[in-house]
Amino acid sequence: MSATGLLDVFRRSFFHLESRILQAIGFNNHAVVPALSVQGPGIFPQLHRNEETEEHSLLDNIFWMAAPKKRRTIEINRCRRRNPQKLIEIKTNIEPCSECGNLKQKHVLCGFCYEKVRRETAIIRGQIQAQEGKPLNNPAVETVVLYEGEKPADTDAGKRIVERKRQRPSWFTQY
After folding, report:
1. Helices (H) then strands (E): counts for the chain
2. Are 163 and 146 in contact (CB under 8 A)?
3. Is 97 within 8 Å of 113 (Cβ atoms)?
4. Rg of the Cα atoms in the chain
5. Per-residue model confidence as pLDDT tens digits over 13-22
6. CA distance 172 to 164
7. At 127, is the secondary structure helix, strand, or coil?
């Protein structure tokens, strides 16, 4: 039996003894009766802590968290982990890209085509930076990219022209 359980038994037995003594004397009204008291610290000594001189323990500042009373079985763990709600849904909106043929979602840009566009625009930006001799800022004029075999149109007058020495990619339309 633990110490708190033992103290609870003593408390109930003293209360029962007190009520029997008061009934024998003739006191039935509990509101006016004197109480039986026992000096607690004489029976159960308590340690008085002096915060200034006492060394602090590492365990004084730890927030104790709840711990499970029973171990979960492997079956329960696997059922929880493999719950159908946690599984990845099968996608039915996948189709091949019209440009490169790689699979992609219908409403999403193809990753392979995007990488090709990103590399080509990085090269074009590098050429613009080399022409201007300074870092690429927001352009004040419109930029036209001309590939091998193309000539500037009459509407391109006053625009910045960047020439590339290769064939125009199929995904990069002129107009």
Report:
1. 4, 4
2. yes
3. yes
4. 43
5. 888 888 888 7
6. 13
7. helix
User: For 50-77, what is the mean pLDDT?
Assistant: 75
What span, in angstroms and rounded, lies between the C-alpha atoms of 13 and 29?
20
Alpha helices in 26-137 (DSSP H): 40-43, 74-81, 111-132
Looking up tokens 């790689």, which residue turns up? 102
Q: Which amino acid is at 38?
A: V
pLDDT digits (tens, 9 = 90+) for 128-166: 888 888 777 777 788 888 998 888 888 888 888 888 898
Residue 156, both tokens: 């391109």
Residue 47 sits at φ, ψ, to 5 deg, of -85, 125
Contacts of 107 (CB under 8 A, 6+ apart): 93
Contact between 140 and 158 (Cβ < 8 Å): no
In this predicted structure, the answer to whether residue 37 has a pLDDT above a threshold of 60 is no
Continuous segment of H or E residues that includes residue 13:
helix 3-25
Tokens coding 121? 């625009």
**Cα–Cα nearest to 104, from 114, 95, 112:** 95
Q: Which residues contact 131 (CB under 8 A, 6 or more apart)?
A: 160, 162
